[in-house]
Amino acid sequence: MSGTVSRSRLALGRVDLRLVLPAAACWTSAGLLVAAPGEAAYVVIVLGAVAAGALVWAGGSSRAAGRPHTDGPSWPARLLGTVMVCCAAAALAGLAVAVQAPDRYPEGVRAAIAAHEEVTARLTVASSAVPGPRAAFGGSAQVRFRATLTTLEGAPAHRSEPAPAAAGRSGRTGLVVPVVVFARVSESPPRIGEEVRVAGTLVATDPGDAAAALLFARDAAEVLSPAPWWLAWANTLRAGFAAASGTLPRDGAALLPGLAIGDTSAVSDDLDSAMKLSSLSHLTAVSGANCAIVLALALLVAAALGLGRLWRIGVGLAVLAGFVVLVTPEPSVVRAAAMATAVLVSGSMGRPGRGLSALAIATLCLVIADPWLSRSYGFALSVLATLGLLLLAAPLSRRLARWLPRPLATVLAIPLAAQLACQPVLVLLSPTLPAYGVPANLLAGPAAPLATIVGLAGCLLLSFLPGLATWLIWLAWLPATWIAAVARTSAVLPGSSLPWLGGPAGVLLTVACTAAVLGLALRRTPLVLRILSAGLVCVTVGCTLGTLVGTGLGRAAAFPADWQIAACDIGQGDAVLVRDGERVALVDVGPDPALLTHCLDTLGIDTVDLLVLTHYDLDHVGGLDAVIGRVGTALVGVPENADDALLHSRLVEGGAEVREAARGDSGILGGLAWQILWPIRGSPLMQTGNPGSVTILFDGAGIRSVFLGDLNEEAQNALLAAGPIGQVDVVKVAHHGSRDQSAALYAQLRASVGLVSVGADNGYGHPTTSLLDVLASTGTAVVRTDQDGMAVLAPTARAPAVGQTSVDEAAPPGAAGAALRVWTERVGGTRVGTTRVGSVGGSG
């Protein structure tokens, strides 16, 4: 018996869990309270009282038990002690929120946000500028960067607000408001540490967001003062390395700056999508592993030079600080640096640091220093990946060694442990499972350290030995290219992304399945638990394969062969297909080529005979790469600038005929007749931007439909005044269901179905209640992609097929008011009038 107890204590000693629960309590408290900072003070008081009560109770329990001091505290005392420490940690997080929240939302900033007024602000740049979305109305390219708003100067002099009101908000200094800035591109983008001035509009973010507001600048940022010397050196190195890497070929050139110094601005959307689908996105930018490699090299060099322990620790801390400045303090880097600092400080006191304890103390300190970090996906994934490596890598390696050579088992256990630990968070980002994630990491992982070390050496030597640095950069390009090739190959393999349940239910299911896999894989699991685990794994695999067939590989077969309209689920944006037989039209292409490609592949669409680009906002043209070379004719609006004209050139280079569309243009698509209703050629009114959205009407083959782009109320009324449209079966609702709508237009259309192409949690409140009320008043049933997923519509005869219900069985087909069948992607479908619309099973 004594031997068993000793082994048990030894096993527990290898995994020190004493700081894990307090760290988890601190993280949970911060994550909840940053969304409701006004309640933080009350929560701190309650938690403090609970901690004090637990301390008193634990002390009283120990004295009452009369246990000798050598026996240690009783188990109730230990339990209460754990509760006390966890409450104290949670209270510290709440106190940090209560102290920091007022500085993030000062009165002047709140007033500017509420008034929707233009302000002039001074900011300190906190991140490198990366390409952002096109401006909502101006159409010009933008850059996006994080910054700290330090001074709110008020609105420009030309603003019409009375002087006293403006003066009341002018000259506010000493602010520390974190913002994300969207500014026009300039010749020299802002660099970290520079002080800049911008004039623009502040928009509030969601509660708990790392940024307190978004600042949409009217022009490019004006640099007022350069970065301090301790940041300027890193800016110079980053810019030089990015320029040198940009001369290299293709994907390797795009990935190398991210692997070496954390600069991901050159990574294209399709490459980024491939990295995510293959579960290699953690390699796209600098991670904690890079930090560990650099620190280990620094300590080895210091030891080789014969430095003492304290000197080695000092060198390690200095290298850590410099590395964080160079690669910028992203969450994963900060976590790794804090953890390494804990280990080094512990070593300086002669106490070798344990990995789990160092991770817990680093998490505690970082969350207390910045409670909003608790809601960072990057931080969560970094912590969980490290936790998985510390807890799971070794036992998984031992288990795999029963069937594989030990070196291979060890190499395979590392990505498997990290994947299992991170998957519950990953399903929140994308409700899918990467089928080839572990093999892809197994192939690409060994190349990452080489790209990091050699690339970083090339970056540091670029200013002193440019010839040698160039050779090193070329050498680092090789593993970067290999990683990109693995990502692209994995992403296009069949079933690379398996559908999974999303939201909190998906997280719980993922946790349960992870526990089941570990229960089967690790030793000493009771037989009953092994049987239950095997059952859960079998059921999950069966459901996943069934969902894959229902919503992925088999979805095209499940949809009706005569479908005429399909609204792709591409988030906040438009991409709607209209088809008759083999002829296909596509109205807008959404914001992301990968999402549009997935939709086209699902529906089996190879070519687009007619492409309509209603206007040039990113959420309507961003996915154009998915159809370049596959378009016959493209109808476009009036270009607003050279960037818009470049889109036309790219379509022409891909073999398309490009024509500017206007009212009166018409044509045939199979058995469908189409005509352009808006804009009016030659009229100076509303020719560009949202009001100039190309509006197209399709008629024939059973469904009459109209697509309104992003027309606002004024343009919709002008469209109505230009001539009658008549009743339609389907209307693609304008501007994702914003409130800027004409009730008179929808009253004339009297559509059976209103398609709302909109992203979940889009932040704009789309579709608005006022728009939904307008559609309800006209008897138009709403089908929205954020709730229903991809929607497919087809005409039907009087007797609907099994599993589908017609919208209006009494109406004759072939005219407005025709019977429709509607399939929606997600379970439960949607309601049209008083009938249930059929759905293709699966979580979408």
Automatic annotation (TrEMBL):
<keyword id="KW-0472">Membrane</keyword>
<dbReference type="InterPro" id="IPR052159">
    <property type="entry name" value="Competence_DNA_uptake"/>
</dbReference>
<dbReference type="InterPro" id="IPR001279">
    <property type="entry name" value="Metallo-B-lactamas"/>
</dbReference>
<feature type="transmembrane region" description="Helical">
    <location>
        <begin position="499"/>
        <end position="520"/>
    </location>
</feature>
<dbReference type="Pfam" id="PF00753">
    <property type="entry name" value="Lactamase_B"/>
</dbReference>
<protein>
    <submittedName>
        <fullName>Competence protein ComEC</fullName>
    </submittedName>
</protein>
<feature type="transmembrane region" description="Helical">
    <location>
        <begin position="310"/>
        <end position="327"/>
    </location>
</feature>
<feature type="transmembrane region" description="Helical">
    <location>
        <begin position="472"/>
        <end position="493"/>
    </location>
</feature>
<keyword id="KW-0812">Transmembrane</keyword>
<feature type="transmembrane region" description="Helical">
    <location>
        <begin position="79"/>
        <end position="99"/>
    </location>
</feature>
<keyword id="KW-1003">Cell membrane</keyword>
<feature type="transmembrane region" description="Helical">
    <location>
        <begin position="379"/>
        <end position="396"/>
    </location>
</feature>
<keyword id="KW-1133">Transmembrane helix</keyword>
<dbReference type="Pfam" id="PF03772">
    <property type="entry name" value="Competence"/>
</dbReference>
<feature type="transmembrane region" description="Helical">
    <location>
        <begin position="15"/>
        <end position="34"/>
    </location>
</feature>
<dbReference type="GO" id="GO:0005886">
    <property type="term" value="C:plasma membrane"/>
</dbReference>
<feature type="transmembrane region" description="Helical">
    <location>
        <begin position="442"/>
        <end position="465"/>
    </location>
</feature>
<dbReference type="InterPro" id="IPR036866">
    <property type="entry name" value="RibonucZ/Hydroxyglut_hydro"/>
</dbReference>
<feature type="transmembrane region" description="Helical">
    <location>
        <begin position="283"/>
        <end position="303"/>
    </location>
</feature>
<feature type="transmembrane region" description="Helical">
    <location>
        <begin position="527"/>
        <end position="549"/>
    </location>
</feature>
<dbReference type="InterPro" id="IPR004477">
    <property type="entry name" value="ComEC_N"/>
</dbReference>
<feature type="transmembrane region" description="Helical">
    <location>
        <begin position="408"/>
        <end position="430"/>
    </location>
</feature>
<feature type="transmembrane region" description="Helical">
    <location>
        <begin position="356"/>
        <end position="373"/>
    </location>
</feature>
<feature type="transmembrane region" description="Helical">
    <location>
        <begin position="40"/>
        <end position="58"/>
    </location>
</feature>
<feature type="domain" description="Metallo-beta-lactamase">
    <location>
        <begin position="572"/>
        <end position="761"/>
    </location>
</feature>
<dbReference type="InterPro" id="IPR035681">
    <property type="entry name" value="ComA-like_MBL"/>
</dbReference>
